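TICKET #2291
ISSUE: user wants both folds in one file
ATTACHMENT 1:
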Amino acid sequence: MVHKIGVIGIVGGGGWMGRAIGRSMLSAGFVEEHSLILSSRSGQVQGFAEWPALRCTADNRELAELADVVVLSVRPEQFSAVEIDARDKLVISVMAGVSAATIGARTGADRIVRAMPNAAAEIGRSYTPWFATGGVAPAEKAFVQAMFETCGEANQVFRESDIDLLTALTGAGPAWPALLAQAMLTYAEAKGLPSGIAERAAKAIVAGAGQLVATGEDSPRDIVQTFLDYRGTTAAGLQAMIGNGFIEAVHAGLDAAAVTAARMSAEMGTVNRDH
């Protein structure tokens, strides 16, 4: 089903996130190729050979003129160089740490959505929280929800500060489980397990367990408690990890990421005022 909200333009459509969102929308039939415009510095975008009628441009101002919905998918530090007039447009930002106020001041938009997909959008497994400013209409919110569901799962949040928190929690994508896999890998290698087998084992446990947690009925808290109640080898390992500060270490890491996201938002606001 094609959602009739007009033309969608992705600023930074040649980057990995812009490309993932664009491909997901096209593959799902959410938008037709003639209703999608991508911009990149070169005016060319790779990865869309299946859709030859797709329009690309190097001019963000042209994109904004043609699009009804503008998706901002550039690195936060690049945003100050983006020149567009998005008044009377729905603007959807997937930039970390750039506030709705800053986006509005730079683009002229007053209907703004901040969203935080992650790298799993490339395989349709992203979790995307999003926040809408007061001017965003109910039909537009339904559009945003459906758009990000083409990349995985999505939820609206109702405080903009929650986006900074979720940037730390879910925006990291594979980074947090990859760190766990790395710790398992280095442990196995230190015990003499061949590197190839150690890596396969670490990847398999993180990937397989992730699927079980995602698709099972039990919450993560219930799963941990079930294994603790078995009082076996896994319980011994869990108790040792907890006792050695595993949970506190994770909380400290998430705090650091959330504080950085909030600081980026404040710094971007300062940059905007200076311009």
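ATTACHMENT 2:
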Amino acid sequence: MNTALSVAPTVEPISTDEAKAHLRVDIGEDDTYIGALITAARQHAENVTRRQLVTATWLGYLDGFPATIMMPYAPLQSATINYVNTGGTDTLLAAAEYTVDTTGRIGLIYEAYGKTWPATRGFTNDVTITFLAGYGAAGSDVPEPLRHAIKMLVSHWYEQREPIVVGGAVSDVPIAVDALLFPYRVWGF
């Protein structure tokens, strides 16, 4: 499935004030830099876990309907499906025609009981899935271990601003960050 971010989250999982408290930074001169580190740390956590932390709207594109659609970002909240029918018309698929399963580790979409997927035009990106993924609209909705991993990564990058540290152990990402992210990783993508 090809994806494109449609509506990005409006907040980060942690605020600049939360990051500054973790860093024990009292000055305001580094607020923009710390904000950029938060965004980078969130993106790192999302890439490693294949999870959307704060709710966002995504578009997913398929050439046709597979038996089961595995959604690329968890946790899945909801989904709607449009498809191009055999006549070339963009059509909204009625929600009664499919089931959106948000209960598992990954989100799944499959035909509703007794239903079959409609025929498509048979061309690239004939199926468009608009879906919401994320733990919630507020940073506080994100599980605490993921929020703490972001704080730790922000702290690491704030203290180690260069890619090479002379006279110390080399670590791209602190092991503790990986340990906090690992249980949330979605496998299979």
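RESOLUTION: both attachments delivered.
EXTRA DETAIL ON ATTACHMENT 2: Residues 149 and 179 are 9 Å apart (CA to CA).
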